[in-house]
């Protein structure tokens, strides 16, 4: 089958493209401004990507067009497809009908932590020799790709998928996860997000309720007992066994960020422990959830804990991009106030009293609408200084971040922003860049600016030493 994918550069659609290619299909696609890591993965998979959405692409005459949820009415290629009555499907529907129906689907849903927890679960199964397929909204370092049909064991029944609540396509406004029909489901947390498609929290809860209704009686739901919103979803109707975590009388994880310890407990009973490279209570919560999910697939707690000691997280999740002159530059996907606060808390526990310079791009649709701007100052509490890129916002970043006082610096020009960060940073500082996009390549630009400053300082120092030597002579 030849499929042509509209919006192929998104994390989900790029993953779908790789799965389709691995399954033997002929895959082409189109998008605007595709950037790494998805552009490099598509290139490595030898998938042709066309820039833009020219209607002339119908000359490819594929068997089916797969339409991403970023594609809206008015798109030239989509309008041509509709006018000519050509066959099309949404990405989640194509995935469900052509890939997932053959597998034991293990889904991870929730407002935060989906990517990390999905990567953890896939790695545990891989480490246990189960060679799962997976589709994750990021690049797990242990695998180096965001999606895989399966490993060496092509008969594996398991497929791990990050189950996103965002809508499916222009023609299907249900959440994408409705299509996945999992047997094992992790529910991490639930709060208001995606203000561009959901009117309020209740609307999101309804989609999660619809998702819960699709699980079989012999499946398993692993749910966060500390999240009242999830409890409310389950109370609306649940026909599948539920194991709750983050319950003081039940399953929970403890640990210490300083020594990297992680313990799994049930009540007062210690069931096992390990040491790992992740920090923060949010990651320990992710860990206990996937330990229970992996046990449903037959992996023992001891084996899963051992696997977590070898887990290397996901790119763009507190990822160190480089260090210059003892200034460390991190990249993180955080774009929701809760995720921002959680990421900063994790970095604070890691670096102690060292200064944290938070660099924020409010880029998501929800952020651009300004729906959560009132929550931003509190979410940035662990930062010593905040640099906000305010280009293309429909609200005043200066007004929203005013409670931070002199700790905040706002720029609408990327070059000036980089220059101000570089001139402010000093040895020992931790620069945390947070955005759900490529942020104009700010990481490389900032590292280059820091390196230039160090070189200039070294040149001045060298000149000073030379002048002093001449005086001494």
From TrEMBL:
Xref: InterPro entries: Mpl, Mur-like_cat_sf, Mur_ligase_C, Mur_ligase_C_dom_sf, Mur_ligase_cen, Mur_ligase_N, MurCDEF_pg_biosynth
Purpose of the protein: Reutilizes the intact tripeptide L-alanyl-gamma-D-glutamyl-meso-diaminopimelate by linking it to UDP-N-acetylmuramate.
GO terms (BP aspect): cell division; cell wall organization; peptidoglycan biosynthetic process; peptidoglycan turnover; regulation of cell shape
UniProt-listed Enzyme Commission number(s): 6.3.2.45
GO MF annotation list: ATP binding; UDP-N-acetylmuramate-L-alanyl-gamma-D-glutamyl-meso-2,6-diaminoheptanedioate ligase activity
Pathway listed: Cell wall biogenesis; peptidoglycan recycling
Co-factor(s): Mg(2+)
UniProt domain Mur ligase N-terminal catalytic: residue ranges: 2-99
Residue span, Mur ligase C-terminal domain: 316-437
Entry-linked PANTHER family: UDP-N-ACETYLMURAMATE--L-ALANINE LIGASE-RELATED (PTHR43445), UDP-N-ACETYLMURAMATE--L-ALANYL-GAMMA-D-GLUTAMYL-MESO-2,6-DIAMINOHEPTANDIOATE LIGASE (PTHR43445:SF5)
Catalysis: reaction(s): UDP-N-acetyl-alpha-D-muramate + L-alanyl-gamma-D-glutamyl-meso-2,6-diaminopimelate + ATP = UDP-N-acetyl-alpha-D-muramoyl-L-alanyl-gamma-D-glutamyl-meso-2,6-diaminopimelate + ADP + phosphate + H(+)
Protein known as: UDP-N-acetylmuramate--L-alanyl-gamma-D-glutamyl-meso-2,6-diaminoheptandioate ligase
Source domain of life: Bacteria
Assigned protein family: Belongs to the MurCDEF family. Mpl subfamily.
Domain Mur ligase central, chain residue ranges per copy: 108-294
Binding-site residues for ATP, renumbered to this chain: 110-116
Entry keyword set: ATP-binding, Cell cycle, Cell division, Cell shape, Cell wall biogenesis/degradation, Ligase, Magnesium, Nucleotide-binding, Peptidoglycan synthesis
Pfam family of the protein (one): Mur_ligase
EC class of the enzyme, as a word: ligase
